[in-house]
Amino acid sequence: MAARVPDMEINGLPLHPLVVHAAVVFGSLAAVGALAYVAVPGRRATLRWPMVGLALVGVASLVAAYYTGRSFFDSRPPEIQANPQVLTHERLARQLFWIALGFGLVALAAGWLSRRTGAVRVVLDVVLAAGAVAVLVWVVRTGDAGARAVWG
Questions:
Q1: Closest Cα to residue 126, out of 108, 110, 104?
Q2: What 3-state DSSP class applies to 14?
Q3: Angle subtended by helix axes 16-39 and 84-112, to nearest 10
Q4: Taking each helix axis from N to C terminus, what angle separates 44-74 and 119-151, rounded to the nearest 10 degrees?
Q5: Would the CA dihedral through 28, 31, 33, 35 be positive or negative?
Q6: Are 129 and 95 in contact (CB under 8 A)?
Q7: H helix intervals, 40-152
Q8: Cα angle, residue 113 at apex, residues 25 and 102 outer, rounded to 5°
Q9: What is the rounded distance in angstroms from the CA atom of residue 108 to the CA atom of residue 80?
Q10: Which of 25, 46, 87, 90 is deepest in the core (most CB within 10 A)?
Q11: CA pair distance 30, 22, nearest whole angstrom
Q12: Cα four-point dihedral sign 95, 98, 104, 106
């Protein structure tokens, strides 16, 4: 049995609907920053620290959205927890959580090894770009599923 996440609220309002906006904005910006870092190698030195900073903020906001979402889910009545749309959103959010963590690690490695060339650079660029695209796709899919769960 999974441990219950403590209630995450401000003045009785659940944090998740507030935090999720930061996750969408900063998660997407982190992915776009990583794609720019890969696509414009001549500007790599200039884009390195903004890419790393955005990746850290983006991943942190996505992780915060995940944990506040767990708290929000746990505080809902069983009939809402059993809603197929809510369960789809939860499943996608769990996938996005792991995708974001992997993306963050690769972004840090790419920043750390920014002066490397050859096969290391190619592998880092390919994995970073793939991670960035995955983050963008899952942010959209997860957000859409959450909106559909709330707004029908």
A1: 110
A2: strand
A3: 40
A4: 30
A5: negative
A6: no
A7: 44-74, 78-81, 84-112, 119-151
A8: 45
A9: 38
A10: 90
A11: 12
A12: negative
**What pLDDT, in 10s, does the model give residues 92-104?**
999 999 999 999 9
Alpha carbons 121 and 38: distance in angstroms, whole number = 10
Rounded to a whole number of angstroms, the distance between the first and last alpha carbons of the chain is 30
pLDDT for 6 equals 61
Q: What size, in residues, is the chain?
A: 152
Output the six-digit token pair for 131. 């991670």
Q: Specify the 3-state DSSP secondary structure of 9.
A: strand
Render pLDDT for 80-127 as a digit per residue (tens, 0 to 9): 889 999 999 999 999 999 999 999 999 999 999 999 999 999 999 999
**CA-closest candidate to residue 146, choices 26, 7, 21:** 21
- Calculate the alpha carbon distances from 17 to 13, 77, 124, 149 in Å: 9, 17, 34, 13
List the one residue out of 60, 57, 58, 36 whose CA is nearest residue 110.
Answer: 36
